[in-house]
Design brief:
The complex is a heterodimer of chains A (420) and B (150).
Chain A: E1 9-11, H1 21-25, E2 31-34, E3 37-40, H2 50-54, E4 60-62, E5 75-80, H3 94-103, E6 108-109, H4 112-127, E7 136-137, H5 142-151, H6 165-179, E8 187-193, H7 196-203, E9 215-218, H8 219-229, H9 244-247, H10 254-258, E10 264-268, H11 270-281, E11 290-294, H12 310-324, H13 338-341, H14 359-375, H15 389-397, H16 407-412
Parallel strand pairs in A: 5-6, 5-8, 7-11, 8-9, 10-11
Antiparallel strand pairs in A: 1-4, 2-3
Chain B: E1 13-19, H1 29-40, H2 45-65, E2 69-75, E3 79-86, H3 94-97, H4 107-111, H5 119-126, E4 129-135, E5 139-147
Antiparallel strand pairs in B: 1-2, 2-3, 3-5, 4-5
Helix pairs in contact in B: 1-2, 2-5
The chains are: A alpha/beta (420), B alpha+beta (150).
Chain lengths: 420, 150
């Protein structure tokens, strides 16, 4: 049964000129070029946004709402991502920036870094109790969770089944607002997102039957609107409430640091994460307690929908972590119980690369693929529309492509080969 | 079945990889390819993991210790058989070689993070059946079977 997912990453066909940049970069080989346009195979896409970052024609986009969406609700709450801390010049205080969001029309702003610090406390308290294989894997980056489901199913037992700070906050806020007399349908909880994968997590959550977040707007869109008014904003309310422990979650390693774990590795950049997961699968990293991995360089602060250069952003987050203090006590205002912090559904493998449900047929296909791969030139030029010769062989065997799609094979048959 | 012998019956798919000695930059490539293929065949994740570890350790052993050799994987309907053959130098004391932590790896190999003395023990641990035969000056043969259901 092929389950189709809603995807945040989309292709804007008019801009695509059929080059092969994205083909190469896709970690799940989800892209093909068909009729001079990139095509995303939806069942394979994990919304990492790598294609979005690499496209020179800006032909890839992320499906997010714009600010007008807040008019749809009677009462709106903004949940700016933790990496929001790294976007603004350091002279603007985060509390002022959060107050600017009220000016933009939100009724409330919740500091997600605070939800993250609460989660650090909870996570620490269950680490020893959790009956998990080591190293335990953080699920903060949804791309990595999906990557594991697809490519490393043997590592699913390592995943700590904890909610992301955004869901913990949204769940608590919605409960509170309903208890204060708001109608559930009137409440709009809106995530300000640095990445398309988080939007996908809202529409198709992993480990949760339904997200408590209603909509997502990109950091980019909000950033420019905030910057227009920021000099006139008066910080009337105390909205920034997190210590440095929560703020650090905006960059790679922040989570492990907040939890004060000794033996951990924090890895950023999807290709590097894949290498580490490969060795973990071979049992090479059992001496580690904890692994946090991010698809983006430097973690969430490198998200494709952010504004600031990822290294500048990371530096700001580091400074702010110190400014707000790592030694400050954390105010626990959401009860640290499993119902508030953990996923309620199991994580299942998604073996999208399997050739056939039937083992015998899969074996036959594999033999054919092996044979075809030997015949193809092995230059992985991408001109056929598949990222590598081997993937073309797979597509041929699965009936999605023809042997003649290979331009070298055309030449052998008296075709024209390369034509300038 | 206590002697090393290739069982050619009912092989659905045969994979063959030649492994050169001392080629550290490619060490792990063959086992990585094998792993990828088994995943495409939708073989249970834990079986894939066991075969991946067994072939990885075998591959590293060939690179570090042998004068070159090969790995063959026979995929069958009920199990996966792994054959590792090399052309020397052979193992002097197999019992000692099978001991956790024992290694004859060179300093060069150790500096690269290999030679922890866990290769052979790990291979045995990952397989349902494990046969090793070695002759000094001639070479070493290993057969491992990983069954889908035990």
């Amino acid at each position: 049964m092929e389950k189709t997912y809603w995807h945040s990453v989309v292709l804007e066909k008019d801009y695509c000129n059929g080059c092969t940049h994205c083909l190469d970069r896709c970690p799940t080989q989800a892209i093909r070029i068909v009729d001079h346009k990139a095509k995303i195979i939806e069942s394979r896409c994990i919304d990492c946004g790598e294609c979005l970052k690499v496209c020179p024609y800006h032909a890839k986009g992320a499906l997010v709402s714009n600010l007008d969406i807040i008019k749809k609700f009677k009462y709106t709450v903004a949940l700016p991502a933790i990496s929001f801390y790294g976007q603004f010049p350091i002279e603007y205080e985060m509390n002022t920036i959060y107050n600017a969001l009220l000016e933009l029309g939100f009724d409330e702003v919740y500091d997600l870094a605070h939800a993250a610090e609460l989660l650090s406390v909870y996570e620490n308290s269950i680490l020893d109790k959790a009956n998990l294989s080591k190293p335990m894997i953080s699920t903060y980056c949804p791309v990595i969770t999906r990557l594991i489901q697809i490519r490393f199913p043997a590592l699913i037992d390592h995943i700590i089944k904890l909610e992301a700070p955004m869901e913990i906050a949204a769940r608590a806020i919605k409960k509170r607002l309903i208890s204060e007399g708001h109608e559930s349908d009137d409440i709009g909880i809106i995530y300000i997102t640095p990445c398309p994968a988080k939007v996908t997590s809202i529409k198709n959550p992993i480990g949760l039957s339904k997200s408590f977040i209603d909509e997502a707007i990109s950091t980019e869109e909000i950033y420019y609107k905030v910057m227009k008014i920021i000099d006139k904003v008066e910080a009337k309310k105390r909205l920034q409430i997190s210590t440095g422990k929560g703020i650090g979650w905006g960059r790679v390693g922040g989570q492990s640091y907040a939890m004060e774990i000794e033996d951990y590795i924090a890895v950023d950049g999807i290709e590097e994460v894949i290498k580490v997961l490969e060795s973990m699968e071979l049992g090479k990293l059992e001496s580690l307690n904890f692994f946090e991995g991010y698809a983006c360089v430097n973690g969430c602060v490198g998200g494709p929908l952010n504004v600031e250069n990822t290294f500048i952003g990371k530096n700001r987050i580091r400074k702010l972590t110190n400014f707000y203090g790592m030694n400050e006590p954390i105010n626990i205002d959401i009860e640290l119980i499993p119902e508030n912090m953990e996923w309620d559904l199991p994580i299942k493998p998604m073996p999208i690369f399997k050739l056939d449900k039937d083992f015998k047929k899969a074996l036959e296909k594999m033999s054919q693929i092996e044979e075809l791969t030997q015949k193809l030139p092995g230059v992985n030029c991408g001109a056929c529309g598949a990222p590598t010769c081997r993937v073309l062989a797979e597509d041929i065997v699965n009936g999605f492509a023809k042997f003649e799609d290979c331009i070298f094979m055309k030449k052998d048959k008296g075709g024209q080969g390369y034509v300038g | 079945m206590n002697t090393y012998e290739k069982d050619q019956k009912n092989v659905a798919l045969k994979l063959h990889y030649d492994i050169a000695n001392d080629d550290f930059s490619r060490a792990g490539e063959a086992s990585s390819k094998i792993k990828k293929m088994l995943k495409q065949l939708a073989i249970d994740a834990n079986i894939v993991r066991r075969v991946a570890i067994a072939t990885y350790e075998a591959e590293i052993n060939l690179v570090i210790h042998s004068n070159g050799g090969n790995i063959e994987v026979f995929i069958k309907s009920d199990c996966i058989e792994i054959y590792v053959e090399d052309c020397g130098p052979g193992i002097e004391n197999i019992d000692l070689a099978m001991t956790k932590g024992f290694s004859t790896a060179t300093n060069v190999a150790r500096e690269m993070g290999f030679g922890a003395g866990m290769g052979l023990p790990n291979m045995e641990k990952m397989s349902d059946a494990f046969i090793i035969e070695s002759e000094l000056g001639a070479g070493t043969n290993i057969k491992m079977i990983v069954r889908y259901e035990t």
